[in-house]
Amino acid sequence: MNSRIADRIATVMFWAGALVVIIILGSLTGYVLYHGGKSISWDFLTKPPQVVRAGGGIGPQIFNSFYLLVLSMAYTIPMGLLVGIYLAEYAGSNRWTEIVRLSIETLNSLPSIVVGLFGLLVFVNMTGWGYSLISGALALTVINLPLMIRITEESIRGVPASLREASLALGANRWQTIIKVVLPGAFPGLVSGAIITSGRVFGEAAALLFTAGMSSPALDFSNWNIFDSSSPLNPFRPAETLAVHIWKVNTEGLIPDLRRVADGSAAVLILVVLGFNLAARYLGRIIYRRMSAT
């Protein structure tokens, strides 16, 4: 076969495969948004679900999802940055670093249900916290930390070695070079990675079933005492996130308008995850242009 013909056939196959994936994803997304978009309103986004009569919404579930995001990323980002910097700048190629990278790859491939059972044993039972936001946040940290470490390591390795050499030649020590030269150079990739990692929090349900719980107490949004069980800021209260809520209303069927709530919740969840991914690409591009002056 002529090499030119083989190249054209391979190109057509690649385009066809990409087109099939785009059609499948677009069809699924369009179907969910079409059926769920009709249910989205201000009341739906702010009111709690109604068990007795129809007309409830997903207000507490949205707040729980964002609050869990903040708690989880407060652990994930600092730890991911520190480990990523160590692997990229300090760790050499030896048996110890091979064990660390193997452990990271193993954690990254663990099913979320396994992480949930681990969180149930350690964060829920051994600590005595019970089903709580803090237990769910730590479980999500176990899930997202390997990805954040890999993103940090790859972003730092992508910084040209000439920048490090120039900084050291000007008299800066190694730590000053990392803080003032390497990290700013890797900042666009770090921002994009952090946002993408944050988006994974919203779609997680299996691990949260065993750690954060499947119900939320009645919340008083005027109560800012984090030690009060009715305060929305209390990290030791159980919390039902948006993804868990979708699973719950479809399996239990206790609310009269479950189809409306489930479709609307799924549409909101897709829009939030899509927004996080678009924001990651947009911010990464803007930051790169400003820092590279291109």
What are the key terms here?
single chain; MetI-like fold; membrane; mainly alpha; MetI-like; 294 residues; Phosphate_PstA
Short description:
The chain crosses the membrane at residues 12-34, 66-87, 99-123, 129-147, 181-202, 266-284. This protein is 73% helix and 0% strand.
Description:
This protein is mainly alpha-helical and 294 residues long. It has a single domain, classed as Orthogonal Bundle (MetI-like fold), CATH 1.10.3720. Helices cover 73% and strands 0% of the residues. It has helices at residues 3-37, 42-46, 59-90, 95-108, 112-126, 133-157, 161-169, 174-203, 206-209, 242-252, 258-292. The protein starts with a helix and ends with a helix. 36% of the residues are buried.
Beta-strand portion reads: under 5%
CATH topology: MetI-like fold
Mean pLDDT across every amino acid position: 86
Strand element count: 0
| Radius of gyration, CA atoms, in whole angstroms | 23 Å
Outline, from the CA principal axes? globular
Given as residue ranges, the uncertain stretches (5+ residues, pLDDT < 50) are: none
GO cellular component, one term: plasma membrane
Pfam families: BPD_transp_1 (PF00528)
GO biological process, one term: phosphate ion transmembrane transport
Subcellular location: Cell membrane
List the helices and strands and how they pair.
Blueprint: H1 3-37, H2 42-46, H3 59-90, H4 95-108, H5 112-126, H6 133-157, H7 161-169, H8 174-203, H9 206-209, H10 242-252, H11 258-292
Helix pairs in contact: 1-11, 3-6, 3-8, 4-6, 5-6, 6-8, 7-8, 8-11, 10-11
